[in-house]
Design a protein that fits this description.
The complex is a heterodimer. Chain A contains 14 helices and one strand. By secondary structure, chain A is mainly alpha-helical. Chain B starts with a helix and ends with a helix. Chain B has 18 helices and 23 strands. The chains are: A mainly alpha, B alpha/beta. Chains A and B meet through helix 2, helix 8, helix 9, helix 11 and helix 12 of A and helix 1, strand 1, helix 17 and helix 18 of B.
């Protein structure tokens, strides 16, 4: 477990070694704020809740998380440092977990830095803070799932740009599950049970429940298992690379 | 295993695991959740569980939802899932007494016919697709209750509606409503021979459609046992015996609706002008109100400038002019408690010369205002109205109190008897043992006006109506009583399931700003209005003056003065508009400031921190 932390720390400090961290955080915060006040007209709605804020998280993540995750493995594969990494006394599983953890904690930092909006909504009215806490937790969990997908995409390619595009595509795919268009397409030839199952893999409905204030166990299970499976497959892939 | 096979196998295995685990969790763990909302919005309340548990006989519930159509509208689909979860929780709370079937009325299927036959109303999503989202409940004797369509906009009443359906299925008898009224609501006795008796008030007819209605006349030694809800309409001059009977009725935990007027215009009075003015038109319940922890502010009526209705009034000068009459108030949704199923659906309540309720400082009962005035209101002295009201005088003398006045309240709790020494002397007839304290929770709804029940305040009778006996509603006054009876006579658990939680959480800061700006505006607007009126009066005066009757022309001085007056009037109007504009400015500028703060503050800090760190590193490198 110690080695996981070591890797995570090393990875995390590498984020801050370059302006990348500042740029990423700034862009995330500016976009989140702009969408909340501009596109969803948070102030004009006169509702003391953060629905106008949370509604954008899935879409922000779909594009920004791939930017975060593309660095996880693609660069190392290209420069050959993966082999170097593997000579250290750590297992591939620990490496995968460590890097993921670093990215996840960084995402958590980005979320935490949105605290001005929480202060703002409490200044303007009396919001349901329990629901807001659930929203933040749900968002962080969902970010983890996006990162899982991104990590997988990153392992699969040697090029950071390819990793970005692939992971963005995966993320958008999971956003689309549950969308009436895709469902309509499936219904033509699949049994309703399968259609329901595919629909249940959509991030949006799960996150919607979480952002309303209810932590439903199936939603927790979904995000956790998706993240877990992605990381597990990543590990298998790394081992394969190592063996090759 | 060959390495090259491992990866695809791993991916396949991962996918299967993912599908499998999630399938399992959806089917078994679907109901488990942690509700972090402040009002526990998504958790079944104790009242609902009690209703389910205490069902006397088995009940069948059929939930119809067109799944395929739901795919097109994900929000309704998730609402349907929420309803399903709620129903399943009720089933487990009922310990087997509720049998639930989940049905999918697909187009042209038998199930669809079944749904339609039961009376469910589908929503037409397009020309071809319709969606059913309804509930049918059947009890052991074959009666059915329906929720024809679950409107997502009424989500906050979801639990209440379903609990009410269960409760109605369990109830086998019609509610008996007892009316004790000093007003002739039930219709007349014999008048002059040859004349038709006075018809009863229309609300009684609506009441009779749903319940058994009995009139309680004369002295009451005790309120009969078969009365499920007692309705008092403008009680006055009740004997101690009757008052005691009502007191004991309350202490037995039996429900009560009371219309207590501050000034009852509809009170039958003996003929003669003097008699009209002398008679006391205030409702009176003796010591009972005090024992319930409520006072009706003596000799005061509620007046509201914002809610005032316009009446035609012939002032000085003779012409009938529309003018706001402060004590005739049209209450809207904003004045109603949106969390109570009783008032949340009401759109418009017209009250006429209503009193004002206040909670006594030593009250031990729960006191919940259901209807209130706006803050642009005032307690108006009875003497201004008693001897013939002058709407203009009331307007002129209006001073807002900035405090909403309570016009209807709900009481709940265990009061003590208003007759601590037992039955008052001179009481006749038999009565059960004296209760000095409530043996069960007393539930009551008090309304500070009785006139609102009169036909002319909430209906419009037109020619067709005379013929067919239909009623055109102009206000929801009667619904207030109907809802109250439904709420109180129903399961006591229902009363506790108030509309769950606050779905509306406004920006109180913005409301404060708006109110402050509004006040500033009103001050200035009043001033400018007054000035306008003076100028107008002057203009009228000038225009009426002419050197002599036959002349058509004004003197130059008169013309000059007229021009000045008209110019000033234009200026004043412009000033008024400018004030209105600056009203909104305060609110908007707050919004802008907050927006820039949220978007830029932390990013700026980050950039600064990064720059600082960057320079530090550069310096370190240089030094090294």
């Amino acid at each position: 477990m110690n080695s996981v932390w070591t890797i995570a720390r090393r990875e995390l400090s590498s984020y801050f070694a370059t302006p990348i961290a500042a740029i990423f955080l700034s862009i995330f915060l500016i976009l989140a704020g702009a969408f909340t006040f501009g596109l969803s007209n948070f102030y004009g709605s006169r509702q003391a809740d953060l629905q106008a804020f949370f509604v954008w998280h899935p879409f922000l993540y779909a594009f920004l998380i791939p930017a975060l995750s593309m660095r996880l493995w693609a660069e190392e594969r290209r420069s050959g440092t993966v082999e170097l990494l593997m000579t250290l006394p750590i297992s591939p599983g620990q490496a995968v977990l460590g890097k993921f953890l670093a990215a996840w904690l960084f995402a958590g930092l980005a979320l935490a830095l949105t605290f001005p909006i929480w202060l703002t909504v409490n200044y303007l009215g009396d919001p349901d803070n329990g629901a807001i806490v659930a929203g933040y937790l749900g968002s962080w969990l969902m970010a983890g799932a996006f990162l899982g997908l991104g990590s997988l995409a990153s392992v699969l390619s040697k090029n950071q740009v390819v990793a970005f595009v692939l992971s963005a595509a995966l993320c958008i795919l999971f956003l689309l599950f549950g969308h009436p268009g895709l469902i309509g397409f499936l219904k033509g030839w699949a049994p309703q049970a399968l259609v329901d199952l595919v629909a249940s893999f959509g991030f949006l409905t799960h996150f919607e429940g979480l952002s309303k204030g209810v932590i439903e166990v199936p939603a927790l299970v979904f995000f956790a298992t998706l993240t877990g499976v992605c990381l597990w497959v990543s590990r298998v892939l790394i081992e394969r690379l190592q063996a090759a | 295993m060959r390495p090259s096979n491992q990866v695809p196998l791993a991916i396949l295995l991962g996918l299967l695991l993912l599908l499998g685990i999630n399938l399992l969790s959806r089917s078994t763990l679907g109901g488990f959740k942690l509700d972090l909302t402040e009002d526990r919005l998504y958790t079944l309340s104790a009242g609902s569980k009690a209703i389910a548990r205490e069902l006397s006989e088995p009940v069948q519930l059929e939930f119809y939802f067109t799944r395929a159509a739901g795919d097109d509208v994900p929000q309704i689909k998730s609402y349907a899932e929420r309803i399903t979860t709620l129903l399943e929780e009720l089933v487990s709370a009922s310990q087997g007494k509720i049998e639930l079937s989940l049905l999918d009325p697909q187009p042209f299927s038998e199930v669809e016919d079944q749904a339609s036959a039961a009376g469910l109303k589908p929503l037409a999503l397009s020309a071809q697709t319709t969606m059913y989202l309804g509930l049918v409940g059947r009890n052991a004797v074959g009666e059915t209750e329906l929720i024809p369509f679950f409107d997502p906009r009424q989500e906050r009443f979801l639990e209440y509606e379903i609990a009410k359906l269960l409760s109605n299925l369990d109830r086998t008898e019609r509610t008996t409503v007892g009316i004790l009224s000093s007003l002739p609501v039930m219709g007349g006795e014999m008048t002059m021979p040859g004349q038709r008796p006075e018809p009863g008030w229309l609300f009684v007819k609506l009441l009779r459609d749903l319940h058994e209605v009995r009139e309680l006349t004369g002295e009451q030694a005790s309120i009969p046992d078969d009365i499920d809800v007692l309705v008092l309409i403008h009680p006055r001059e009740l004997s101690p015996t009757t008052l005691y009977a009502i007191d004991q009725y309350a202490l037995a935990g039996r429900p009560l609706v009371a219309f207590l007027d501050g000034f009852c215009e509809g009170q039958p009075t003996p003929p003669g002008m003097q008699a009209q003015f002398d008679v006391d038109r205030t409702s009176d319940l003796g010591p009972l109100l005090a024992s319930w922890g409520v006072t009706q502010v003596p000799r005061k009526l509620a007046g509201d400038r914002r809610l005032a209705v316009q009446v035609s009034y012939g002032g000085r000068g003779g012409a009938m002019q529309p003018i706001e009459y402060l004590i005739y108030m049209a209450l809207g949704a904003e004045q109603a408690d949106q969390t109570s199923p009783l008032t949340a659906g009401l759109d418009r309540i017209l009250m006429a010369s209503a009193g004002v309720f206040q909670k006594s400082s030593d009250s031990a009962l729960e006191y919940t205002p259901l209807l209130r005035t706006s803050e642009d209101s005032q307690e108006i002295d009875l003497s201004s109205v008693q001897f013939g009201a002058d709407p203009m005088a009331l307007l002129k003398g209006f001073v807002p109190g900035y405090r909403a006045l309570d016009l209807a309240v709900q009481l709940r709790g265990r009061p003590k008897s208003a007759y601590p020494d037992g039955r008052p002397a001179g009481a006749e007839g038999e009565a059960p043992a004296h209760l000095s304290e409530a043996s069960a929770d007393f539930n009551a709804i008090l309304v500070a006006d009785a006139d609102l029940l009169a036909d002319n305040f909430w209906t419009q009778r037109d020619g067709l109506a005379q013929l067919f006996g239909t009623v055109t509603k102009t206000a929801d006054n009667a619904d207030l009583l109907l809802n109250a009876i439904e709420l109180l006579a129903g399961d006591q658990n229902l009363i506790s399931i108030r509309a769950r939680g606050r779905f509306e959480r406004p920006f109180t800061k913005v409301e404060e700003l708006a109110r402050a700006a509004d006040q500033k505006f009103r001050d200035q607007a009043d001033r400018l209005d007054a000035e306008l009126r003076t100028i107008q009066a002057r203009i009228t005066e000038l225009e009426a003056q002419r050197p002599d009757q036959d002349s058509l022309y004004y003197t130059p001085e008169q013309i000059a003065e007229l021009e000045k007056a008209r110019a000033r009037k234009l200026e004043v109007n412009k000033e008024l508009r400018a004030v209105q504009f600056s009203l909104n400015k305060d609110v908007e500028s707050l919004g802008d400031r907050l927006m820039y703060l949220n978007i830029l503050a932390v990013p700026l800090l980050i950039v600064v921190a990064a720059l600082v760190e960057g320079t530090r590193r550069k310096n370190r490198r240089r030094a090294a």
